[in-house]
Every structure is written in structure tokens, then in C-alpha cells.
Amino acid sequence: MEENMDESQSQKGCKECCERCVGSLPWASLIATILLYMGVALFCGCGHEALSGTVTILQNYFEVIRAPGDTLDVFTIIDILKYIIYGLAAGFFVFGVLLLVEGFFTTGAIRDLYGEFKITACGRCLTAFLMFLAYLFFLVWLGVTAFTSLPVFMYFNVWSMCQNTSSVEGTNLCLDLRQFGAVTIAEERKLCTQSEKFVKMCESNELDLTFHLFVCALAGAGAAVIAMVHFLMALAANWGYLKDASRMQKYEDIKSKEEQELHDIHSTRSKERLNAYT
Question: What value, to the nearest 5°, has the Cα angle with vertex 185 and ends 75 and 172?
């Protein structure tokens, strides 16, 4: 009988511990962090490979040559975009960790309401600063999403030309890189639908793969935007909860001081009455 009671108590204790651990997790920040990491990883990985595929297409089919020296050409711009991708991957990994840690501290402070670090003025300033950063990065990812849609639109046009030229005979459409700003106006890099290189480009896996990689990068940027919106919602809710918790803590402090003063006054009067009787 005693063994059964001990087993039931141990099971009950494990259950309460699990419920306490699960209940103390900042689920909103945790979901937003996972979504942010997935979006950033998808954007950075697919974007990097799509840029590499773009370089291969320009060199193999459009015969674009890298300019000598430090001349700013399309290949230099692609290299700069790759370094930006590296910075985004590293920076948002750290930013996601900071927001997740802030969510853990805030959740504990809201549940305990006993003068935790997050209820202090410094903690509330930290939450406000992270909220400002989240809003700023939300605008950044909106710009990244809009910028990523441009190569998707360009590659979609090229892919549509490849699909239409096989069904419509006698058409001779040309792709001019000067229209996309990839080369200078003085250079002429055209690729017409009736040329052999255009047919090879359409039949190769490089065009299709690069197009779908840019689509995945666009989806990753959109996921990052949604993650930043989740973070803004969580931070705004935490700010409101922390503000109310701070006010409640001040009220409890004032109430305890008043009760202590009343207790001191009552004890003093009791001593005076006792002295008067004696």
C-alpha cells in the first residue's frame, strides 16, 4: 500500500514538474524564433545558390566576362550580395537568440511578479529597445522581400519565353541584358530565341533550378517578415504585462508599508496604554 502511494506521489510530482516547465515556456517567442530561423536559412541558402547559378548562366550563355580590376560590374554586385547574405545569416542568428532569451526572462517575471529583473526600469527599457529593433528589422525584411521579387519576375519572364517558343514557331524574341541593367549600354549581350545557345539554356537544369531557388528565397524572406510580426506582437504584449506588473509591485510595496506603519502605530498605542495602567 505504501509503495503504491509513493509511486502515485512520484508520478504526481513528475506531472506537476512537466506542467510547470511547459507552462513557463514563452511559446510565442519560441514559435517566432523557429519561423525566423527557417526563413533566414531558406533565404540565405537558396539566395546564395541562386546567385551562383546566375553567374553560371551569364558566363555560359550570355558570354559576360568579369571586368578587370575594381570595376563595378554585375559579378561584383553579386559578390556584394553574397556577403550581405552572410551578414544576415550571422546577425539574425544572434538576434533570434536575444529575443528568445528575452521571452524566457519575461515569462518568468510575469508569472512570479516578485521583483524580477524584467520588471525593473532597466528590464523594461531592454524590452522597448528590442521592440524598436524588431520593428526596424521588419522594415528591412519588407525591403528584402521586395528586392527578391525582382529576380523572380525576371526569371519568370525568361522561363515563359522558353515555354512559349517551343509551342509558337517562327517567333524570334531576344533577351537583352541592357534592359535588366546587368551590362552597360555600350555593351550588347543579346540572346534570341532562335539561337542555339538559347535552346541549350532552356533545356539545361541551370535555368529551372536558379528560378526555383529564387522562388524559395522569396518564400524565406516572406517567412522572416511573418516572424518579425510575431516578435512585435509578443514584445508588445510583454511590454504591457510588464508595465502592469510594475504597477502592481509598486502598489504591493505601498500597501505593505502602510500596513507596517499601522502595525507600528497600534503597537505604540498599546504600549502607551499599558504604561498608563501601570
Answer: 95
Which residues partner with 190 through β-bridges? 176
For residue 221, the 8-state DSSP code is H
Say if CB 274 and CB 159 are below 8 A apart.
no
Reading phi first (left if > 0) and then psi (alpha if -120 to 50, else beta), residue 184 is in beta
| DSSP codes joined into one string, 109-172 | HHHH-SS-GGGSHHHHHHHHHHHHHHHHHHHHHHHHHHHHHHHHHHHHHHHHHHHHHHHS-S--
Q: Which residues contact 76 (CB under 8 A, 6 or more apart)?
A: 67, 70
- Rounded to whole angstroms, the Cα distance separating 68 from 87 reads 26
Phi, psi of 181 (to 5 degrees): 75, 15
Per-residue pLDDT tens digits for 29-63: 888 999 999 999 999 999 999 999 999 998 888 88
Residues paired with 191 in a beta bridge: 175
Q: Read out DSSP for 225-248?
A: HHHHHHHHHHHHHHHHHHHHHHHH
Per-residue model confidence as pLDDT tens digits over 212-266: 999 999 999 999 999 999 989 888 887 777 666 666 666 666 777 777 777 667 7
What dihedral angle (degrees, nearest 10) is formed by the CA atoms of 16, 19, 22, 25? Answer: -80
Amino acid at 7: E
Does an H or E element contain 215, and which?
helix 205-277
Question: Is the per-residue pLDDT at 2 higher than 80?
Answer: no
Query: What are 131's three cell numbers?
Result: 521592440
Other CB atoms closer than 10 Å to residue 264's CB: what's the count?
Answer: 10
**For residue 26, what is its C-alpha cell?**
514563452
- Per cent of the chain over pLDDT 90 is 31
Q: For the whole prediction, is pTM greater than 0.90? A: no
pLDDT of residue 117: 45
